[in-house]
Design goal:
147 residues, alpha+beta, Nuclear Transport Factor 2, Chain: A, 4-stranded antiparallel beta sheet, 6 helices, 4 strands, globular
Length: 147
């Protein structure tokens, strides 16, 4: 009986550790940090597991500075996010794209994750406001099959 009681917490702990390394869970944690602690801390926590990102310090500082502009004065109140799509290139490379809802306009956040060995790490993160142009382009007549 005691062995069973010891095994159950160990299995739960293992399950929790495994789920924290899933790209969707990593991006969900990013959004939680983004909402509760701000973009700077969210980006720090996103990039922390990838030891190679230390070499890109200036680029991350610039990204933090740009994301600080996504404030209520510029884009209005933040209302949450929705997963637009998930693209899996291989078992080791995944792209997640989210529609981030602000009062003034939607912003797209794009995460690219790479798993070189046994753990997922962020490979690339970017955001942009060009989603409306892409939707208009997709709706153009030449994108439809005509008989």
């Amino acid at each position: 009986m005691k062995k069973t009681l010891l095994v159950i917490p160990l299995l739960l702990f293992t399950l929790i550790l495994t789920s924290q390394n899933d790209p969707k869970d990593i991006s969900e944690q990013f959004f939680k940090d983004f909402e509760e602690k701000g973009s700077s801390i969210a980006l720090d926590n996103l990039y922390k597991p990838n030891k190679w990102m230390n070499r890109s310090g200036d680029a991350i500082i610039q990204l933090k500075s740009q994301m600080d502009g996504l404030n209520e004065d510029f884009v209005g109140k933040y209302y949450g996010k929705e997963l637009l799509f998930e693209k899996t290139l291989t078992d080791s490379y995944i792209l997640l794209s989210y529609l981030v809802k602000y009062e003034r306009q939607p912003i797209r956040f794009t995460f690219q994750f790479y798993k070189p060995s046994d753990k997922w790490v962020i490979y690339s993160f970017k955001y942009d406001g060009g989603i409306s142009e892409e939707i208009e382009e997709a709706a153009r007549l030449y994108n439809f099959r005509l008989n």
